[in-house]
Every structure is written in structure tokens, then in C-alpha cells.
Amino acid sequence: MSRILLIEDDHSVRVSLAKALGRYGHDVAAAPTGEEGLRLFVEHSAELVVLDLMLPTMDGFEVCRRIRAAGIVPIVMLTARGDDIDVVSGLESGADDYVVKPVEPRVIDARIRAVLRRGAPDRSGRSTAAYGDLVVDRASMTVTRAGHDVAMTPTELRLLLELSASPGQVLSRQQLLESVWEHSYLGDSRLVDNGVQRLRAKIEADPAAPVFIQTVRGFGYRFGPV
Amino acid sequence: MRSGDLPSRRRRPPWRPPRSWWPRNLRARVILAFVVVAMVAATAASAAGYVAARASLVDETQRRAADSVRGQISRLAPEVEYPPDQEALDRLRTSLGENSLVTFEGLTAASGCALNLISDETRAAVAEGDRFTVQRVVDASGPKLVLATPILLTDVDGRQRDSGVEVYVVQDLAPTQAQLDRWTRIVVLTIAGALPLAVVLALLVSRSVLRPIQRLGHSANQLAAGNLSIRLTPSGRDELADLATTFNRTAAALERSVGELRHREAEARRFVADVSHELRTPIMALTSIMEMVEADARDRSPDDRELATMAVDRTRKLARLAEDLLELSRLDAGAVALRRELVDVAHVVADTVRTRGWDDDVDLVPTEPVLAQVDVRRLDISVANLVGNALRHGRPPVVVEVRTEADDVLVVVTDHGPGLPDDVDADQLFARFFKADSARAASDGSGLGLSITLVNAQLHGGTVSARTSEEAGAQFVLRLPRHLETEPGPDDGRRGRQDGETDEQA
After folding, report:
1. For chain A, what are the domain ranges?
2. CA angle B122, B125, B129 (to 5 degrees)
3. Pfam families under this entry (chain B) (predicted)?
4. Which CATH class is domain B339-438+445-495?
5. Model confidence, pTM
6. CB pair distance less than 8 Å for B504 and A12
7. Which of A5, A40, B261, B269 is the residue whose CA sits 20 to 30 A from B338?
């Protein structure tokens, strides 16, 4: 049972999707506008937001940015357009994953569960590991850099754990999509690139010259060597 | 000037055969023509002036020499007694100076070495009483002037008669020749000096003529490269200014029509986006509702269950059809950009088959990884359409093979059905809403799958073809260039740079 906030302007979609997600065992609050959504977000203390990008007045990107600014609650975007630019903008606004309408509620449910699983404690490997001034605690799911806590979304955290589990080893984008996003189909590698960008902004001293997460040109990413 | 017009010029009619010395370059032609004209003009003017000056100099020299000899003779003649003796002749000759000869019947007084130049004709002319002859001769030491005259006696009655005394004087023309040589030198030097001047002038002229042409060529190139806002500033009122104005008009017309096309394209794109949203939203609601209806129907009567299943199926088909239509519209509107990334095509194809639950019906031919820069989503859709088509219209097993051929990657989908219908052209299969088998018109396919595969293949710079295979049924071949040596497009920047390094396999 997780508390989900659904922000969707179309009445029929909002009602039917809220009901369908309710059947999958989620506690769903639904809002027709971005403004209402932001109000409910606090009131409902949502654990995850399902957000339509095409909203009247305040658009989905803005809602996405505000929720991201307020904390680490994961966001799954609903995009109606096939325009790639929407996906890119949505990811840059801080979304963790996206689905393209029309989509069956069971697919959305699977995504919601996958996103929420990323925040669950990792029982494999060492509980704490230090890489330079970066300390990752897998038991408590916390990351500190130079002694300060770094607030991370579950996606960023899981991406860091996945990469740091095998320092020096190159992981392809599709591998990361499968292990972090749990996309069993051919996923969108921009999710990975965007996640890496946000992660770098949080843990790298100079995100333009990364030390921890390095790009392996033409293939994927590698953690360290630090 | 584009090199492209050269062959057509070579194909000109035979009355103008190609001349190897005639430069192809317009500038060189202008300069060469200008210099030739300038040199011809300078030479002609100088030669005419030289000839005229030379004639007048020679005339003047002859006149002065003749006057001098005549004066001397008319001064000396009265002092000579007649008939003169040898002494008198010698005196007369001495007064005339070097290179002179005086004769009187058998007597001769001579001096100088140039006297052998006096020709017999001259002597004959003088003997016949010719008053004064002047002849120009040239020997090894240079040009000479031979002057000859008989001395005439004036009687008391005023009549003149020949005295029988003949006077010959040879005068050296060396100073005159030196003067002429100086003039020749000046003329040659002048012409030689005019040559560089003509070249410089030709350069200036060719520049002033060619610069507008060059500007025009440059602008035309820019226009060809897609810079439709390029314009020339016509200067002056000559033909080149007219040409520039015409060019500007052409460019403006081109820009206008291209702008109109772009505008329409943008409209079409916007329309597709709007339709996309308008269609997807109700289908999304339907999909959500149908999922619940289907679940609820499990506890109802078989009739209800059948109806629910039908409704769910139709909803899925509607969703699929809308999706395919929108995809094609986006492709048609040019609203699609390829997102190439380096992937193992064999892996993508395996995923396509696996994620659609086709493992049991499809035989994947095992292969080494086949790396290529492709748009993964589009490759996935294309292969899924081919395999889905084979599963619907052919018979299992459907064999899928990934292999390379030259710089291309091939995905070959072969089924074991009856092959392509005999009356169907292979290209027709890729037409929209084409159904080869009308009896099965209500199949699961939208009728757009193969068209989408075709457009996606073309978007990659590849092809898709169909034929009936000899040993099995229908065979579809998707052929895409591997694109390994080129950098990904600019839109790939978000995903980090990819340059086709292939050695790091995790």
C-alpha cells in the first residue's frame, strides 16, 4: 500500500486510472490541475506522483520541478505526445520514469512498484563503502559526501549503488535500464543519461569533469576508479 | 563557376573545337585577351610612328647631304679651269673631303676606301647628264649615301652645258643609323614596358568584372546549401547588376515557397500532435476501464466474459491502430528524428522477440554480436512488425537471422507458410492498409505495420524487401547501414558522446 498522487486533467482518465490503480492496492489521491496537485502532494504526503505533462495553467514540467525541489519523492510522467522533446524536458525537470499514453494500468502499476523498490535497503554486498570522501551506506540507504548527507531520489540512489557495486566495470545503458529501471523491454537510454547527470550534480565536485561516474564513450558508464 | 558545366561546354558544336591553349578559367581568359589587345595596339602604334619618323629622318639626312655637296660644288666649280688638268681635279677632290671621287674623261682624283660602292648604274646615270643622283647602299661597315653629280658650266648666254667633270661623294650614314637604333630601342623598351602595365590593368579590369560574378557564385552556393536568406547588393546599372537583381528575385521566391512549405509542415506536425493527444486520452481512459471490466467479468456468465474479452480486444486493436496511424503521420510530417546509438542488433532483435512473448514461435539464429548505430526503438518496431506479420500470415517456425553484409546489417525474417501470393507485387506489401489475404482482413494487424517498417528503414538510409524463399515461405529482409564510422547526430549529445568504440564489452 503506497500513497500515490495522480495529477491528470482529463476527467475520464483521472477517474478510471485512479480506480484501476486503487485495485492494484495503492492509496490514490487524484488532482485535475497542477496547483491542486501541489496542494494534495503535501496533504496526502504522497510517496510517488503520477503526473500528466499536458495540464492547464501550470504545466507538468513546472509541477515536476516544484515537487523535485521540495524533496526526493519519485515521479512517473504520463506523456500523451510522441514528441521526444516532451520526454527529454520531463526527464530534465526531474522525472524518474515515463510511460506513453495510452497505457494499461498494470504497466503503470509495474513502473510504480519498480520505482518504489529502488528505495528499499540493499541487502547484498557490504553495508558501508567509502570511495574517497563519498560514503555509501547500503543498510540505511544514505549517502554522505565530505561528512554531509546527500539527499537522493530512489532512482539516483539505486543508480549509484548499481554502479558502485562493481567499481571499474563498464555497464551499458541497457544493462542499467534493466537493473535500475527494471525495464524488461528495450528502454529509453535517455533515462540513464539523465539519471547520471543528476547523480553527478549531487556527488561530483565538478560535474563537467566527473571522478566517480565516468562516461565510456560509445558504450555506457563506469564507477571510478577513484 | 561550377565544375559541373565543363562537360557540357566540351559537348558544344564542332565549329568551336576545344583549344588546349585557351584557358578554361574566365579570369585567365580576360587577362590573356586584354594583354594581347594591349600589346597589338602598342606595337602597331609604335611601329607606325617609328616608320614615319625613320622616313623623315632619312629624307632629311639625304637632303642635307645633297645640299652640302651642291653648295660645295657651286662654290668650287667657278674656280676650276676648263678643261681641268690632274692638279685641278686633285684640288677639287681635296676640297670635297674624304671618300670622294672626281673624274674628267681619263683623269681621276680619288680618296677613301668606300669608292668601290659607287655602282655602275650611278656612273651611267651621271654620264647621261642626270643632274643629281642619290643612292643608299649598305656594305659591311654600315649604310652609306652615294651622291653623284656632273659639274655644269654656264655659258655667257646663260645656257648650261656639261663640263665632263663628274663628282662622286660617299657619305657615311652611321650617325643617322645610330639615331635610328636609339629610336628602335626606345620603341622596344616602350612596348616591353607596356606589357606589365597591360597585365596590371587586365588584372584590375578582370577583378572589377569577376568580383560580382564571384559574389554571385558564392551566393548561389550558399543558396544551394540552404541559406535562403542570402541576397546580393546590386551596384551600378550594368548587366551584372541586372543579374544580381534577378538572383535576388529568384532567391526571394525560393525562400517564400520553402517558407510556405515549412509552415505547412509545421502545421501538419502540430495537427498530428493535437490529434495524438485527442485520440490517446480517450483511448487511455478506455484502456483503464477495459482492464477493470475484464477483471470483473471473470465472475460473470460466459456470455458476459466473451463480450468483455471482445471489448478488451477491440480496445487494444483501436489503441494499436491509433498508435500506428500517429506514428506514420509523424513520419510523414517529418516530425521524427533518429536517435542513433551503438547497440548489438542481435541483442535488440532477441529482446524484441522475447518481450512480445514470441519465444516459442520464433527461431533466432544464434550469432556473434552485430554492432551498429541505430535508433533502438525504431529497430524494435520494424522487426516486431516483420515478425508479427510473419506470425499472422505465414506458418511457424518463423526464423529470424541477423547478419552483416558489407557495411550493412541485415535482419532476415523467414516463415514457413505458402510464401507471397502470386498475384501480389512485393512492393505492394508495404503499401498502407494493404491486405494480401482478403479472407483474413480482420486479422490483428493494423495494416500499417509494414509501411511503418519501410519508412523506418528509409529513415535509417536502409531498405526492406520481400520475396518468396526457395526452401521456405515468405522472406522479408530489413537492411540498415551500420553507420559505424560516423559520429552520432547532434541530438545524441544528451546521452554523452558516442564515437563507435566497440572494444569495451561488459
Report:
1. 3-117, 128-223
2. 135
3. HAMP, HATPase_c, HisKA
4. alpha beta
5. 0.59
6. no
7. B261
